[in-house]
Design brief:
single chain; 420 residues; alpha+beta; 6-stranded mixed beta sheet; 3-stranded antiparallel beta sheet; binds protoporphyrin IX containing FE
Length: 420
């Protein structure tokens, strides 16, 4: 079906806002019910380079998402994309003001630039390289839980998932842990809904911060990832790459931990089994990735020539997003996809994307989430969600689906030191 007969339909674009960011599945079910074809949308909120009310196409079926991931007509180049964002947004020329040096990284470039930017990093993120980090990651999880030991309730997002995933990315990249508060706030501005002024201000702060850090790394002899970048790329390229790793490298994992916990809470039988048998954790994490898909929509792609996807014509000049969270619930690919089943490992999910832009951090993300749940189960035997569903606040982002906070309890037992 994919890439065959063309059939253009004129429909009102679906307007996607906060309800979609909170839970995209009702929209995906509706699209599936209408035949699952690529659909015109408007993304209400802006983020980083994306202006608000951007018109685009949404690809949702597993087969179509796979097709686009591997078709070079669907391009990524931030410089070519900026005028298309302007052309597809009511903000028009003002959309160009969202540009920043930070975005010219591997996630936003095609070969040969993409290859040149990704190649120096591949070795640091292989499964084998990441396995050697297990001990350090375990210590970081223990330290994050020690910080909430003795509490009745704690915020799983702000008190555990973020501090822990930030400490892992700081350790991996070689970012000083004491700078976390600042860069975390800049990343939140850039990847969330922000005014153009706040966006420009925090993007500029991020550029200055990373430039200075990379300058220091260049002359040092450290083996961390930023040192590697500082020595193998020129400064603007290294800054943009460092930003890509930092921005993509902790929030998605933190979001997976929180939405994973929420999903377990909604499936008490699965949660009970997991809490009584930690050997099930790796399978449970894989199923959380499929079922929750923390990267809801892909980053942008665009077509410079009219392309047919799943029988629908996507006109030249269109912006295209791939709905990984929809593909991962596609009944044509997965049996009973809405059911969360920790012992049904379906590794063919697309939570980490696919094709040349597949997630470089996937082994690290899996390790982090496995270590986190292992530690939570061991140290918090009665852990339960306390925040009622109606009070949950979600990030206003089409890409990063995550909770702002999630109260859980009881926390880990007080450590011997604290009791003394
Ligand atoms: C649960 C955690 C994570 C999820 C669900 C996730 C998901 C994804 C997805 C879906 C993509 C492809 C986007 C697209 O094609 O438009 C991607 C790309 C990327 N991810 Fe991750 N990611 C996670 C963790 C990480 C971590 C820990 C790092 C850093 C160490 C990282 C760094 C990146 C980078 C740099 C790219 C761009 C790769 C390229 O374009 O070649 N991610 N990620």
């Amino acid at each position: 079906m994919t890439g065959r007969n063309s059939e253009s339909e004129s429909v009102c674009p679906l307007s996607l806002g906060y309800d979609f960011y909170r839970d995209p599945q009702p929209v995906y079910r509706e699209i599936r019910g209408n035949g699952g074809k690529p659909t015109e949308i408007v993304l209400e909120t802006g983020m980083a380079y994306l202006p608000p009310n951007l018109k685009a196409w949404l690809v949702t079926s597993y087969e179509d998402v796979e097709f686009v991931l591997r078709d070079p007509r669907f391009r990524k180049s931030i410089n070519e994309a900026m005028p298309l964002f302007a052309a597809n947004s009511p903000a028009g020329a003002r959309a160009q003001g969202r540009s920043s040096l930070l975005y010219d990284n591997m996630a936003n470039n095609d070969p040969p630039t993409h290859t040149a930017l990704r190649k120096p990093l591949n070795g640091a993120f292989t499964s084998r390289a990441i396995t050697t980090k297990r001990r350090v990651v375990e210590e970081l999880a223990e330290a994050a839980l020690d910080a909430v030991a003795g509490t009745t309730d704690f915020d799983l997002v702000q008190d555990f998932a973020f501090p822990y995933s930030i400490s892992v990315i700081c350790d991996t990249l070689g970012v000083p842990a004491e700078d976390r508060r600042e860069f975390h706030s800049w990343v939140q501005t850039i990847t969330g809904e922000a005014t153009p002024e706040a966006l420009r201000r925090d993007a500029a702060k991020m550029v200055d911060y990373l430039s200075e850090l990379l300058r220091q790394k260049r002359s040092g002899g450290a083996e961390d990832v930023l040192s590697l970048l500082a020595r193998s790329l020129d400064e603007p390229q290294a800054v943009a790459q460092a930003y890509a790793l930092l921005a993509a490298g902790y929030e998605t994992t933190a979001n997976l931990i929180a939405t994973g916990m929420l999903t377990l809470e909604a499936s008490p039988e699965q949660k009970k089994r997991l809490w009584s048998d930690r050997s099930l954790v790796p399978g449970a994490v894989e199923e959380m990735l499929r079922h929750q898909s923390p990267f809801n929509l892909s980053l942008y792609r665009y077509v410079t020539e009219t392309a047919v996807v799943g029988g629908t014509e996507i006109p030249a000049g269109s912006i295209v997003f791939l709905a990984f969270a929809a593909a991962n619930r596609d009944e044509a690919r997965f049996v009973d996809p809405d059911t969360f089943a920790i012992d049904k490992v379906r590794r063919e999910h697309l939570a980490f994307g696919g094709g040349i832009h597949n997630c470089i951090g996937k082994h690290l993300a899996r390790l982090e989430a496995e270590v986190a749940f292992d530690a939570l189960i061991r140290r918090c035997p009665e852990l339960a969600v306390r925040t009622p569903a109606e009070s949950m606040r979600w990030k206003a982002s089409p890409t990063f689906r995550g909770l702002r906070s999630l109260l859980v309890g009881p926390g880990p037992a007080a450590t011997a030191e604290e009791e003394a």
